[in-house]
Design goal:
Length: 271
């Protein structure tokens, strides 16, 4: 029996996906859209797919998660194919680099270090290894290597954690709360000044210190905001549904009516 072509062999694993990607980028027979892409144009899709993975996990949508993880894997394959074409590295180089990194960062699993340590100690050891890696890359500053492309809340959290590791941090939550009050006052003053740049600046300062509060409370700001977004969506959809039973839409209703329905939706969630 003749062997199946690789792209039609459903049991071929990652090699099948790599071949599909190579064919899509083939300058003579590939897909025109895929051929036109470069790292910069694909990067936004990579970020989007990572968020869709997080969304599926938040919703515990396990059947969807399989597909979302596949979409994210495809982004890595796409970038690696473009890198291969440019002579930078191959997909196998990506795999080798990650495998080497995981072995090096887990000496308590793959080396001769003891596993008899707490999760907190392992986290500190992990950060120490990463700091040594950054030093090897001539990244001397405490904030070096925090990616600019991260979502702003996530990057703020990482910047603050890095600064805290070298002692630039409040030791307790009280000063953080005081700082929130201070920044809120400065935001109000910027609003009154009608200075758009100052308003954006002060608003950013307030968000940054809110992230700091979350860090001190052990709350991930990105996860917390995703949760609140989902809650807002759920409650607003309840308002729309209840208005629809009256033959109305939000645009046909008063704020007082919608506030009352919002409160009823909150009470319903607490039962």
């Amino acid at each position: 029996m003749p062997e199946k072509p690789l792209i039609h062999d459903r049991d071929a694993g990652i090699e099948r996906l790599l071949e599909i990607m190579r064919r899509l980028r083939d300058p003579d027979t590939g897909c025109p859209w895929d051929i036109e892409q470069d790292f910069a144009t694909i990067a936004p899709y990579t970020i989007e797919e990572a968020h869709e993975v997080a969304d599926a996990i938040d919703r515990r949508a396990w059947n969807e998660l399989k597909g979302e993880l596949g979409d994210l894997l495809f982004q890595s394959v796409f970038h690696a194919q473009m890198a291969d074409e440019a002579g930078h590295f191959t997909f196998q180089d990506v795999v080798r680099t990650m495998s080497d990194k995981m072995v090096a960062r887990h000496p308590h699993v793959f080396g001769d270090e003891s596993r008899d340590k707490s999760a907190d100690q392992q986290t500190r050891d992990w950060e120490a290894i990463k700091a040594a890696e950054r030093a090897g890359k001539a990244q001397r500053g405490a904030l070096d290597g925090v990616a600019l492309g991260l979502p702003a809340l996530m990057r703020a959290l990482k910047l603050q954690k890095r600064a805290a590791r070298v002692g630039f941090d409040w030791g307790e939550i009280g000063p953080v709360l005081d700082k929130i009050t201070e920044e809120a006052q400065e935001l109000a003053e910027a609003r009154d000044s009608k200075d758009a740049d100052a308003l954006e600046d002060e608003f950013g300062d307030l968000l940054f210190v809110i992230v700091n509060l979350g860090r001190h409370l052990g709350v991930d700001p990105e996860a917390a905001l995703r949760r609140t977004n989902a809650k807002f969506t759920r409650r607003f959809e309840t308002i729309e549904a209840r208005l629809a039973t009256q033959g109305k839409t939000p645009a046909d209703s008063t704020l007082e009516e919608m506030d009352a329905l919002w409160d009823a939706a909150k009470r319903g969630e607490r039962r």
